[in-house]
Amino acid sequence: MEQGSAREGVRPPYAPGAPAGTPVTGRVPEQLCVGRSQDAERAGGVRGARGEHTHGEPPAPRVVRHSVRGQILEALRAALVDGELIPGQVYSAPVLGARFGVSATPVREAMQQLATEGAVEVVPNRGFRVSERGPRELAELAEVRALIEVPVMLRLARTVPAERWAALRPLADATVAAAAVGDRASYAECDRAFHRAVLTLAGNEQLVAIADELHRRSQWPLVANPATRRADLLADAAEHTALLDALTAQDLAVVQALVREHFTGADV
């Protein structure tokens, strides 16, 4: 079998908290969640299947179409959001590589990238430990995101015509679709895609890059990581639709309130 090619017999994804054998239906089309990492776009891949795992074990295998660092990086990021990579747990590149059906090299390279981002830390001669984060760090990220994005969205509300906001409806709908099936990893992708699309209208690439990095970090799991309820995901997704309505109506007070509430409540 060619290195990195899809494995046969990989189980389909399952809903968080559901027993094994309960397939998820209506998985959100990932093409709607545009603007993913440049590495993933070059790889042209999609996330593969997700299965069960127990504490102390690496996540169950995902389908990887190409033995490229970008594809592995995207899969590991999804595993982080899903809680498959447990805060405080150490994972070795060879064991993860075996799970993905690739060599240890692209896994190690992807983990090094996650280390530079602060998602994991290098443990010499052992592997990589998933960073342990508490509520304070999440609150600090929410505060910084609000300081950056609230003024920008208020300015955009005053200047962007209604038809431009209407073009973002499919991205908001994609977050609702991901939330409806309780798919935290797809929701995280679509959530970032929606915010990137809004901020892109400001015409400042540096702003978009910084805001997206803060957003990604806010999605990493906490030390105490209870599974996000589907109802919470749906409520979070509904705020995207409400925000578009307020931006279209140029209701600045509602825009400001919604963005601040969205950040303080975002924990997926």
Low-confidence stretches: 1-30, 34-56, 59-67
- The portion of residues forming beta strands comes to under 5%
Overall morphology: elongated
Report the C-alpha radius of gyration, rounded: 18 Å
Order of helices and strands: HHEHHEEHHHHHHH
Helix/strand-derived category reads mainly alpha
Question: How many individual β-strands?
Answer: 3
Terminal CA distance reads: 36 Å
Largest sheet features: 3 strands, antiparallel
Q: Mean pLDDT, as a whole number?
A: 77
Walkthrough of the structure:
The protein is 56% helix and 4% strand. It contains eleven helices and three strands; from the N terminus they run ααβααββααααααα. A three-stranded antiparallel beta sheet has the order 1-3-2. The chain is mainly alpha-helical. The protein is elongated and about 55 Å long. Helix 2 packs across helix 4 (104-117) and helix 5 (135-159) runs antiparallel to helix 11 (252-265). It has helices at 38-43, 69-82, 93-100, 104-117, 135-159, 162-166, 169-180, 184-200, 205-218, 230-249, 252-265; strands at 90-91, 120-123, 127-130. This is GntR family transcriptional regulator. Pfam families: FCD (PF07729), GntR (PF00392). Residues 38-56 have a biased composition (Basic and acidic residues). It comes from Streptomyces bacillaris. Keywords: DNA-binding, Transcription, Transcription regulation.
